Structure formats: structure tokens, C-alpha cells
Amino acid sequence: MVSKNSGNGRGDIATAVTVSSTAAASLVYIYYYWYTNYSKKYSSSTFFQSMNIAIRKYLKGRSGSRSSDDHGDNDYDSDDSGISYGGDGGRSHTDLASFGLSFSATQDMNDADLSYRDGPDGKGGGGTGAYANTPSSSCIYLDYNGTTPVDQRVIAAMLPYLTTHFGNPSSSHYFGAVPKEAITKARQSILVLLHPNHVSKSRLSEEQDAIIFTGCGTEADNLAIHLAIQSNKHRFTKTSWKGDRNLPNIVTSNVEHPAIAQYLQSLQQQNVITITYVPVNAEGYVTYEDIVSAINQNTVLVTLMLANNESGALQPVKSVAEYCKMNSILFHTDAAQAVGKVSVALDETGIGDGVDMITIVGHKFGAPKGIGCLYVRPGCLKQGERREADAKEGGYLLVGGGQEGGQRAGTENVPYIVALGTAADILTAKTKYRQIAWKKNASRMESMRKRLLQNLTSVLGESIVRPNGPEDSSKRLPNTLSVGLRDVQSGELLKAIQMSVACSAGSACHSSGGKLSPVLEAMEVPLNFARGTLRLSVGPDTTQDDVDLASKIIVKEVKRQLDL
After folding, report:
1. Neighbour count for residue 283 (Cβ, 10 Å)
2. Mean predicted confidence (pLDDT) in 373-385
3. Catalytic residue among 139, 216, 373, 509
């Protein structure tokens, strides 16, 4: 119940607030009821003060401790993983946890439970795992490639920028300083993710402008292609004696995300570029030799996803990028599905130093939807024959106020940028056993994927269960299982289990006779398996119980369809 003991109105809001994964919407809802019920009695500043008091009281009660479950996903060492965004009082993200709003749909806010809620250990929160304190559900979530739950530590880091630190980062006054500082910190967090073995103050300073925050991965992908074309356009202004214009060429695979594939097709239809598609093999990846042989004298960009979202196949980014570097060709990779699962380090331990541009998407690793970024290696757009075009020359997609160093106009979405940086820091944090968090998560996800496939195969048999994608685990994501079920209709199966198991199908149309997924077609998966393909993607929080129960539910429906 809302406390009414305070004389200054702060007790009317509560002593602590819990905000769900839809943090912004919940905050608006809280403020709406504050405004309608208390605005005449108290100033709006009291609302913001009470929110911050709630957060600080909650953090003080936790004293930096966290619970851990039997697989220890919360054993972060605060000395290694502490981060703080401007004005947050030096908080470590490992000390941040769940804030939540709890009331029924028919309950008036005045009677809502906005009080601090303890976890089972009495220390608050109560959730465990990489996405700590995610809402419990009777439906098992196996669609982490679609999106991930927003980590509650991320939500907690966002909150001050939805309340106290609401200023425009471009403002020169007091209220702009902290948001501006937070954006700088978020850039550094992304750079640490990309340069985990070679982090220095000079590098962080030199590459500040290398991170361009975007509204989504699609924008980042489009921007990478646009930048490559614009930096080379001066080379293709002449026409032949027949009047034909020479066009820049872009090389890509035939299994790219629509953010790449459809944008390239649009540019080709506008007679801006030519495209060379390199087909994948039956395991879902292209070969280095095929990519290299597809490059011609007009090639200005090779864009190749790091990991496929359906099959989980890893592409030979490192070797292809190195070839492009040696031959002065720009290289871009969409790493949306890879972050948090495999290394994206720009050195020999990851994807090499030949990559020029990288797309990163927040909602694939614990940040909210609506935030991403493009890394652009400093100087790559003006090396060799390339010339970096400015905004006046059409060098960027969004032109306006000059934000992001003039590379992407529009007022920065500070809370979501903070979220992206926090999610990156959580991945690069070290556990108390000195293990990098994302590597520990990857190992756990690999074991859950293996168990899931074994469960299905042991009951249904190898004649019915056909995994799609690379057999070699080093050539695929550790969490992704694309599995074909012979003579099963995936659409019918999904409809039957949708309230018990959340997963997706491998076909674009979930009905008999529908068009198959282009990825499965490109891999030439046999039709009787392709139509029954499911994409099952586990996450850091997926448990053995989740996997075992989901397997039983899927097997039961498969047996029903096949009359087994």
C-alpha cells in the first residue's frame, strides 16, 4: 500500500519502486497517477526526488550483495565489473537490481503495492542469472535469438536518466553535463567490448567518434552500406562511350539479414550499385575462397554477417576481412547475433583487425529494443582512394543537428544509450573466479543446446530429428539449435505449444505449402525437414529443467502429428 506517513509527499510515492522490463512505460504510468492524484498538493520535483530516494534506499539495503543459484551466474566480482555513469554516485552495475511496479489491472494506483519487495534471500531482487530478476512465467522462453529479456541491472542504470538526469546532452548548462558524460561512458563500454585485450586511455580517447549510436540494427546496417558507397562515389562518376555508368559493387552472402539484403536490393533497383551474392554451403556458411573469387575491380564493400540468426552458422569474417584490408576494400559485419555468444574482439583472439565496420544491437544481449550502434574504424573511410563525405555531400543518412559528431543527427536517447553501455559492461565483467562473464554464459548455453538436441533425438530418433547448420561447434553459435522434424508442420506445432514453449519456426509462412525461409532454401534443407524446422535458442538463464520440460512438450506434439 502507498505510505502516507511523510509530510513532504515522498511517502505518497513509496520508499522503493520496482519497475518491470517495460521501464519507460511503467514510469509514465507512475507519473500519470502522481500527476492526477498528488500534483495539486506536491511539486513534480518531489516525484523525481522520491524515485531517487527509492533507488538509493534499495541499493543501500542490498549492500552490494547478490544471490546466486546452483549454476552461479551472479558471481560477479565488483572490483572487476564496477561501472558508473555520470551522476550515479559511483554505483556498480553489479549492485543494481530490480525495481518493480506491482498492481492489478483493476486496482487503483492509490491502493497499489509500491513498497520495496524482498527476494527469497531477504536481500531484494531474488532473480538469478545473466538477465537477473526477469519475470517468471509458465511459458518456457527459447527464443533468445528473437530478443532477450532486459537485464534488471540495465533497467536500474537507465532509471536516473528517465528521472533526475533528463537533460539534453547537447545543452551547455548544468542539466546537460551528466547525460553527456553518460554517453561518453557508454562509448567506452562498447570499445572495451571490441578491444578487451588492448584497452588504454589513449585508445578510448582516439576512438570516441568510432561509435555511432543508432535507433536499431537496421539503421546501423543501412548506414554502413551508405558510408561505403559515399566514400567511393567519386570513383564512379564517369560514363562509358556507350553512355553506361560504371557502378560500385558490393559482395555479400545469400543469407544476410533483411536489413542488409533488402537495402542492397533497393539500391540496385535505383541503379546505384551492383550486387554479387555468394551462396552458402549445406551447413550455412560461405567459404573464404568463394568470397574472394567474387570480388572484382569495382567492389567497394564486402558485408558478411558474423553469425546467422536462424542456423547459428559463423561466417569466415576474420579471414575475409584480412583479405579486404590488404586490398583496400571496406569490410562490414553485422554482429547482432554474435555479441555475448562469441568473441567480437578486434584482434587475433576474435574477428581480427581487418574489420572496418561492426553492427551491434542492444536487445540481443540484455538492453532494450530501440538502441544499437555502428563501429566505424577511425580513418577507414578516407584510406587509399576513398574520401570521407560530409553531411552536405550526402555522407550520412540522418542530417540535422550535428549529434554523434555530425555522423547521425537527432537528440541522443540517453537512457537507452546508457542501457547499451551497461549491457556491454555486464558481458565483459569478470566473475569472482576471474572468468569473463560472456564466456561463462556461452559455455553454459552450449551445454543447454546439447542437452536439448539429445532430448529430442533420444526419443524421436535421428530419422526424424535433423539439426541444421554446422556440425562443428566452433563454426556455430553456442545457443542456437535449428532442428528439422521430418514430416511435421512447424506452424501447426507452434500453435499447439505457443502457451508452453516460446520458440520460432524456420519457415516464413507457418502453413502447409507456404514459402520456406530463404536461409533454409539457401542451405538446401530437404523439404520434408524444412517445413518442420524449429529455431530453438537458449539463453544464459535457461535451466536444465527448462530444456527437459520444453523437450517433452515438443516431443508430445510431434508424436501427435505423426501418430507415433
Report:
1. 15
2. 92
3. 509
131: which DSSP letter? Answer: T
Q: Which of 415, 422, 413 is nearest to 365 (CA)?
A: 422
What is the chain's mean pLDDT, rounded? 79
Task: Map residue 325 onto helix, strand or coil.
Answer: helix
Pairing of strands 504-505, 533-537: antiparallel
- How many angstroms separate the CA atoms of 549 and 174, rounded? 54
Whole-number pLDDT of residue 526: 95
Span 240-293, pLDDT tens digits: 544 556 899 999 999 999 999 999 999 999 999 999 999 999 999 999 999 999
Residue 191 cell numbers, joined:
570499445
> CB burial class (10 A; 0-12, 13-18, 19+) of residue 197?
exposed
Distance CA 125, CA 99 (A): 8
> Which three-class secondary structure state does DSSP give residue 41?
coil
What average pLDDT does range 191-211 have in this prediction? 86
For the chain, the maximum distance between any two Cα atoms, rounded to a whole number of angstroms, is 86
DSSP state of 136: P
What percentage of the chain has pLDDT greater than the value 90? 60
Q: Which three cell numbers stand for residue 484?
A: 528439422
509: amino acid identity, one letter: C
Distance from C-alpha of 34 to C-alpha of 57, rounded to nearest angstrom: 20
Residue 158: phi and psi, rounded to 5, are -70, -35
Cβ atoms of 100 and 17 within 8 Å: the answer is yes
Q: What grid cell was written down for 222?
A: 543501412
Active site residue 509: yes
d(CA 184, CA 417): 10
The three-point CA angle 205-207-208 to 5° equals 70
Check if the beta carbon of residue 248 is closer than 8 Å to that of residue 233: yes
CATH topology of domain 437-562: Aspartate Aminotransferase, domain 1 (3.90.1150)
Q: Which residues contact 339 (CB under 8 A, 6 or more apart)?
A: 193, 360, 361, 364, 365, 427
Helices (H), 235-347: 258-269, 288-294, 317-326
Q: Model confidence over 285-323: pLDDT tens digits?
A: 999 999 999 999 999 999 999 999 999 999 999 999 999
pTM higher than 0.70 for the full model?
A: yes
pLDDT at position 236: 87
Q: What is the CATH number of domain 209-413?
A: 3.40.640.10
Q: pLDDT digit string (tens) for 91-121?
A: 333 333 333 333 233 333 232 222 222 333 3
Do residues 254 and 278 make contact, with C-beta atoms less than 8 angstroms apart?
yes
Distance of CA 84 to the CA centre of its chain: 21
pLDDT in tens, 160-180: 999 999 998 878 898 999 999
CA distance 473 to 465: 18
Looking only at the bridges linking them, the beta strands covering 504-505 and 211-214 are unpaired
Residues 6+ apart with CB under 8 A from 270: none
The full set of domain ranges for the chain reads 10-136+150-164, 209-413, 437-562
More confident residue, 71 or 523: 523
